[in-house]
Write the structure tokens for this entry.
Amino acid sequence: MLEYRPLNHLSVYLDRLIKGRLWLKVIIGLVLGAGLGLLLNPSTGLLSEESSLRLAEWFDLPGQIFMRLVQMIMIPLIFTSIISGIVSNSSENLKKFGLRLLLYFVFTTAVAITIGLIVTLILKPGEYIFKHGGFPNSSETIASSEPVNLLENIPTTISNLVPNNPLESILTGEMLGVVIFTIIIGVAITQLQAKTADPIIRFSEAVQKICMIVVSWAMRLVPFAVFGLMAALLSRTGAEVFLGLGYYILVVILGLMILMTFYLALVYLFTKRSPIAFLRSIKEPQLLAFSTASSAAVMPLSMKTADEKLGVSSNISDFVIPVGATINMDGTALFQCVTTLFMAQAYGIELTIMNLLLITFTVVAASIGTPAIPGGGVIILASVLSSAGIPIDGLIIIIGIDRILGMFRTAVNVTGDLTACLIFNKLYGTEFNKNAVDKKSKTE
């Protein structure tokens, strides 16, 4: 039998952050950073515009270092976590489980996008920006932003799901290619004899532990990163634009709250568990996700919470959480949808029904490949805008406030992963545990 240690034992590296109330330090950093940013804004007359911009670059430094540290370890952490999850399950379980899990994730992503479409079309947050001059744009960007015919690209897109060069996918951060490559390798490992596979499993465990040590170091920077980012943002932004962005932020948060309500409804319908009790059980991974804006970094704590507080079989959580952290990005999909429509409204671009359908399909595909790191949603958003024929110049402003929205949508993403764990445990938990026992008794 292939033996492994579940990733949830690595949550010990996050315990200090939870006990130290990292989320509270982040909120304090947000408030203090906002106050300092408003004070340093050139409109107050205390500093010249040049001096304010120079200080903003230094304020951005802790955030840039944090993001790079998380990006550095994201792929090895997800790679080894998925392999551990696959090794813990039999191939029969994966055949039954894998396709249904993927269909479930696509369904919840479609619901998230629908919520984003409805909320943005009703509240129209971009019209305020448009009435005050709109976002900056260039004729070059508009000319190059021709809509893409999605139907013609479907066969190519499907064939490209299997990476012909895994190293290229790793180097370029193409997460969907990395996930598919990892799943193929993980299934292949299950076909090896235990003697041959054991060094690979031990190596994976060592890599996971190293990654979590680096994550624990990076997370100490989070309050300073948020403080600096808010100070830099408000020292650069004019009052009218900031009010428009504030309305946009509220629309995104409203959409995320509706999505959270949808998750709670699923939990009650499938498990009859109290939504309030469910939220109490998962508050620790939610707060840590809010603080760090990285669902990948919170994986060990999410697994521990699923196993110990939600009563989910470790055979299920070990597979659902790592896969969900990379392809189940419902909060990110909602954010990308709202932002795309917001940008179109800010530029005064009228979108047809076909445009909206194109945006929906593109966001589904883009959210699946979004990196589970801070800023990952904006990295992929440029391709969504291009496919809809919307100029991408305004992304410069969105990037400035993305950290704030990233905290909220990451907490929602983690909630979605834990919801999936509960639902699939209810549907398949008994069968998985029975197969695991049978497999162990045969090897013994």
Q: What stands out?
A: The chain has 21 helices and no strands. The chain has a mean pLDDT of 76. Residues 14-63+96-161+225-443 form a domain with the Proton glutamate symport protein fold (CATH 1.10.3860.10). The chain has one domain: 14-63+96-161+225-443.
